[in-house]
Write a structure and sequence with these properties.
alpha+beta; about 90 residues; 3-stranded antiparallel β-sheet; about 20% strand; single chain; 2 helices
Length: about 90
Amino acid sequence: MKKHSLIMPFLSGAILLFVLIIAGSFLYATVGSMQGWPSVKLDLFGALIFHADIQAGGSFYVRLGQGLLLVALLGGFLNMGLAAWLRKKQTGA
């Protein structure tokens, strides 16, 4: 029986979530500055994930915090756990 590593599901989940949050925050700030949307600040237990500050006149800035890394790591662990559960279920162990 071939032993499978769970590092790839962890890395793929963490990196994908990291990139999607960064892209989503910049997308929100860009479209929001054109459409007049309000600023948004997203944090997890006080740890800043991102803050998109949209100002009058169409300017904006995006600040990313340490919560982004925390969310990415949690997503990686969740993906790793689900992969382990699916492999265990697939092998019937």
